[in-house]
Specification:
By secondary structure, this protein is mainly α. It is built from nine helices and no strands.
C-alpha cells in the first residue's frame, strides 16, 4: 500500500493517497487494540475486515470498481452487514457471558441487538455519504439503475445491509437457542479463549 500512496502522490491524486493512508491506519487498528487494551480479535475476523476495507476503498474508490462493476457496492454492503452483525452479536454476547455482570439476555434479544446495531451503522454510513457529497462535492452516492439522484443506491445499500445483518443474527440466534454449531460459534469461542479475563468472575 505504501507504493500505492507514492503513486497517488506522484500523479497528484491527493484524495486517493488519503484514502489509501486511511486504509493503512485502519488495518493497524486490531494490533493497537490488542496492545493497548489487551483485547484480541480472531484472525479470521481481522482478515475479513482488511479484505473488506481493501475492496471498498482501494479497489472501489481508487481503482474505480464502483463505476466498472454495478454490483460491487451491493456485495460490499452485504458483507458489511455480515461483519457489523457479527460485531454487534459479539458485543452483547460478551456482556451476556461475563460472570462479573448480572445480565442474562435471551437469544432473541441478542439477535435483535445484533441486527439493529448493524442496520444502524449502515444508516449512519449512508448519512456520512450524503454529507460528504453535499459538503465536499464527492460522489459517494453513486447513480444506479438510471437513477442519478443516489436514492436508489442508498436504498439498495440499506436493504443489503439489513439482509446481511439478518443472516448473522439468525445464525447467532440458532446457535444460542438450539446449540447448533456454526462459524459464528467458532469465532465466539476463539474470542473467549483469547480473552479469558473478560469472562472471569
Amino acid at each position: 500500500m505504501g507504493a500505492a500512496i507514492l503513486l497517488a502522490l506522484y500523479e497528484r491524486q491527493w484524495l486517493n493517497a488519503l484514502v489509501v493512508f486511511a486504509i493503512m491506519l485502519v488495518t493497524m487498528a486490531p494490533g493497537v487494540l490488542a496492545g493497548r487494551f489487551r483485547v484480541y480479535i480472531p484472525a479470521e475476523f481481522e482478515l475479513l475486515v482488511v479484505i473488506f476495507l481493501f475492496a471498498a476503498f482501494f479497489l472501489g474508490e481508487v481503482r474505480g470498481y464502483y463505476a466498472r462493476f454495478w454490483w460491487w457496492d451491493i456485495v460490499l454492503h452485504a458483507t458489511s452487514g455480515l461483519l457489523l452483525g457479527l460485531l454487534g452479536f459479539l458485543l452483547v454476547y460478551v456482556l451476556n457471558e461475563n460472570q462479573r455482570i448480572e445480565l442474562h439476555m435471551r437469544p432473541r434479544f441478542v439477535a435483535l441487538f445484533a441486527f439493529t446495531f448493524a442496520v444502524a451503522m449502515g444508516a449512519l454510513w449512508e448519512i456520512l455519504e450524503f454529507g460528504m457529497d453535499q459538503l465536499f462535492g464527492m460522489n459517494m452516492q453513486k447513480p444506479m439503475f438510471g437513477d442519478n439522484s443516489g436514492l436508489t443506491d442508498t436504498m439498495w445499500d440499506l436493504i443489503v445491509d439489513a439482509l446481511g445483518a439478518f443472516a448473522i443474527s439468525a445464525a447467532g440466534w440458532w446457535h444460542m437457542h438450539r446449540g447448533v454449531r456454526s462459524f459464528v460459534e467458532v469465532w465466539i469461542r476463539k474470542f473467549i479463549e483469547r480473552n479469558p479475563r473478560l469472562f472471569r468472575a
